[in-house]
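Input record (one chain):
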Amino acid sequence: MRKDQPQQTYKNFSLLFAERTYFINKVHYNVSGLQSTHIKTQVKNALDKIDGVQMVNVDLVSGSIEVGFNESTDKNQIKQCIEHTGCLVE
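The corresponding structure, as predicted from the sequence alone:
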């Protein structure tokens, strides 16, 4: 392994990370109905389809969802999307 390989990998990761985490707003919801990885995947995929959503973190253990988004969407659209998947925002 060459010494410059880890640095190159780190540099690429940083560029990818910087591109994915640029957002203006963040919202956090406590949600009931997150009972399986299948539902987690459904919620994440649905939220990722909303224009303006930049980051989605679904935590099954705590029953919470955190979403980073820009001005292309709003909290109501995000909440409706979560509830449309069958989960209840508390």
